[in-house]
Design goal:
Layout lengths: L13 E2 L2 H11 L6 E5 L7 H5 L5 E5 L2 H8 L7 E5 L14 E6 L5 H9 L5 E9 H8 L9 H9 E9 L4 E2 L6 E8 L10 H11 L7 H4 L6 H6 L13 H16 L1
Parallel strand pairs: 2-3, 2-5, 3-4, 5-6
Antiparallel strand pairs: 1-8, 6-9, 7-9
Amino acid sequence: MQPHRARKRFGQNFLQDTRIIADIVHAVRPAENDVVIEIGPGLAAITAPLCAKLNRLHVCEIDRDIIAYLKQQPFADKLEIYEGDVLQFDFRSISGSKKIVGNLPYNISTPLLFKLSEVADEVIDMHFMLQKEVVERMVALPESNDYGRLSVMLQYFFEMEMLIDVPPESFDPAPKVNSAVVRMIPQKGRIGTAEDFCHFAGLVKQAFHQRRKTLRNNLKGWANDDDLQAAGISPQQRAEAVAPEKYVLLSNYLIRKQKD
């Protein structure tokens, strides 16, 4: 079989650094009966060592050539392959508490992370390779340039930690950006619980709509000065100055106010 050439339209960059691969598998800590899902197995850099420790591995792959390649590997009998776009995949169709791992395509990483948030209640942990810039935004704290909507929304569901820096030369072809591995562990109620999650998500999106504006301006029509102050937020603050739990408090305050 001819060597597979990375396809730009699928955002393919194949991990080949054996030290990084070993570090990722060690971080996942797979036990033989674990329910593990790998997103984008590629040329099996992580797939093969995972299969060495697991009875079964579920993989999501969109590239038919790669699927054909995987089916020819010595560990193929351990694979449950789901062909198609992972953004359309129903993670709940695989029963049990899951570990999810993958080298995520940069072009779909943000929508995929939001999709995975919806199944956080069925997840033990997740380990992903992502563009380092995205990981920095995920784990960012208030008052930093990287802190934004992605930070707040993911920190609502997960405790997150950047584990491993991955330079471009760890891949073939080498991407033009640095990468990093992040660990995500579901933490229900870590920053409080939104009484109406859709309202909370919409509020956060609106708050960061124009980063240079104050919350008084960005949330006009959503909350007045008294509402903001009731949640411990100054109307003069910008969105990046406000901790995630304050957005939960504000959303819940506004929902209760609507009901009164």
